[in-house]
Write a structure and sequence with these properties.
Layout: E1 3-7, H1 11-23, E2 27-31, H2 34-43, E3 50-54, H3 62-71, E4 78-82, H4 87-96, E5 100-103, H5 108-125, E6 134-137, E7 140-143, E8 148-151, E9 154-157, H6 160-171, E10 176-178, H7 179-186, H8 196-209, E11 219-222, E12 226-229
Parallel strand pairs: 1-2, 1-3, 3-4, 4-5
Antiparallel strand pairs: 6-7, 7-8, 8-9, 10-12, 11-12
């Protein structure tokens, strides 16, 4: 049984989702605003395995709710619902800390599949260390199964999208990776969109992996194109 918090102000949609998910054995709690959803989750974080979060909410919108949860170091999987599904909205959701998105209207079977995928990923992250996918470079240790970066005795949690982007750059280490390629291969966004969202993710990654983010040695800008990851830079 999965424990799901649905933060959705369209009552008929929220009730319909609860009816169908509970029919499959899940336990579902509803909240009609961002503030109410945050209050429920923060009162008992262990009560929830996943959050289904609408973007357009009264008061705090979904972006603000996701960002606040991540800033408070809560890494429960978040499936964000968006009415428009524009690339800019999707990237903004990922930047706020969402793990996946689903544009409205959607089929229940697709929602169920997305929820199942996020819950499986959560279980994989809790697998034994020997099953972990890890990468080490110059005193940094990245554990992709745990969404965690270790630098010395510091452990820094990564969002799923931060981890996916870092994984992509590591796989292409030493190569120039364009912003367009990142959008298509990391986020699956093939339409033209504002690539500044990529730059924002890179700024965040530099804060994690660079000794001096203003003078990066590992995650280098290639002007007018994109970025290049260098695991062992020359002195």
């Amino acid at each position: 049984m999965s424990k799901i918090l649905i933060i959705e102000d369209e009552r008929h949609l929220a009730e319909g989702l609860r009816f169908n998910l509970e029919g499959e054995g899940d336990r579902v709690t509803l909240a009609a605003s961002g503030e109410a959803g945050l209050a429920l989750f923060l009162a008992a974080p262990s009560d929830y395995d996943l959050i289904v979060l609408d973007v357009m909410l009264p008061g705090k919108d979904g972006f603000a709710v996701a960002a606040e949860l991540r800033q408070a170091h809560h890494y429960v999987p978040i499936l964000m619902l968006t009415a428009r599904g524009r690339a800019e909205d999707v990237l903004r959701g990922f930047a706020a800390g969402a793990d996946d998105y689903l544009p409205k209207p959607f089929e229940l079977s697709i929602l169920r599949a997305r929820i199942g995928g996020l819950l499986r990923r959560k279980r994989w992250q809790q697998s034994p260390p020997e099953a972990a996918e890890v990468y080490d470079f110059e005193g940094r240790h990245v554990d992709f199964s745990k969404l965690e970066l270790s630098v010395g005795d510091r452990r820094l949690p990564l969002t799923l999208m931060e981890a996916n982007l870092l994984r992509h750059l590591i796989r292409h280490r030493g190569q120039v990776v364009s912003r367009k390629a990142m959008l298509e291969e990391v986020w699956g966004l093939k339409e033209a969109t504002d690539t500044r969202a990529i730059d924002n993710f890179v700024v965040r990654l530099r804060k994690y992996i660079e000794d001096d983010p203003k003078r990066p040695r590992h995650l280098l800008t290639v002007r007018g194109i994109g970025y290049r990851f260098v695991p062992e830079p020359a002195s």
